[in-house]
Amino acid sequence: MKEYKKETRINKKKIFNDPVLGFISISDELIFDLIEHPYFQRLRRISQTGLSYYVYPGATHTRFLHALGCMQLMHITLRSLKEKGVYISKDEERASKIAILLHDIGHGPFSHALESTIINGIHHEKISLTLMKLLNEEFNGKLSLAIDIFLDKYPRNFFHQLISSQIDLDRLDYLRRDSFFTGVSEGNVNSERIITMMNVIDDELVIDAKGIYSIEKYLTSRIFMYWQVYFHKTSVTAEFYLIEALKRAKKLFYKGQELPTTPTLQYFLTKTDFSDLKNEDLYQFSHLDDSDIISALQLWQYHDDKILRILSKSIIQRKLPVSLIMPKPLTNNVIEKLLIETEKIYNIKKGNYFIHQNKLNILPYNSTKDPIKLLLKSGKVIDLEKMNNQVFIKGLSKDIIKYHICVPREIGGFIQRFL
């Protein structure tokens, strides 16, 4: 694999001014070098919330800032735990910071929006792990412990739980950060309070029982953020059109047509087999960001292919279709009628590029998988839902399901007949 040249720097101490968490100080040279690495710098060009800025103009923050925020929360949490008498070695502290710093390094353009479109069937966590292993080779094995923590192979389980669990630092940062940049105040969680309530018993993460109301607020905030931001009907619609535009581009490339695009994006639009990630795949991926997609869409809105042109223009000019969030799905018969109307209007044979129905599902709290543990005054540890009189928590342990439908504006009135 092609290697990036390392530059010699004298001062490897840095301070980032984060609008959410304040000043973030970097004093570890290895962490400094990882932040400066092109793999990580790419996250400056990856949107944290996909196309949510089509709804909330302030939501232009990036994965780069989120990753730094997670690392800062890890720093604050480990300091709090050490003050409570939890032994944490310097190697463990460094490794846990690195693990959470790099946990999202495998995200592609627009974050989750293109999860399975750019590289078919490959989750971003697998790419993150692969890139972490490459960095480990480049930095002479200094990331080995961080990788073990990331993979939950380290015996002290609480380190991994701080990175990935039902009350991890990743969620505490993105809820507060996304709330800040979107202006959706309902998502603003009190991360300081929750972190202060964290403790460790038998190397497992627990929360002091008196922090239960902060946990309830955190879980409800997550619900609000999903329905108001992540599952907002306009955001979901824009992401659907984006996915369909790339699918159409892939099909045109497959048919032998040439499309204007960056060499990096063309690499992924013309290759079909990613079952075994090659070094060249990862090298190309490390250069792929939001700008590749946007620049392509800007050119494709003038393309001769009608389907690609309509999809691209709709995204670039924000002329999106009519969309609805409904408690029940439309029947297949209704969808078929909508497809026929769409094909008539656009004079095409592929109406499915413009009609979309999908299930939106959120489980606020999973009481059966890695439940949140509470530490009682007696020293006993119990599952969150077993706390006395916690009917509210039990209610959060049920799936909330809604359905999203989008249709071209030209038949927006037509859909009202079936509601």
From TrEMBL:
It comes from Apibacter adventoris. GO terms for biological process: dGTP catabolic process. The keyword Hydrolase applies. Keywords: Hydrolase. GO terms for molecular function: dGTPase activity. InterPro entries: dGTPase-like, HD/PDEase_dom, HD_assoc_2, HD_domain. The keyword Hydrolase applies. Residues 63-175 form the HD domain. This is Phosphohydrolase.
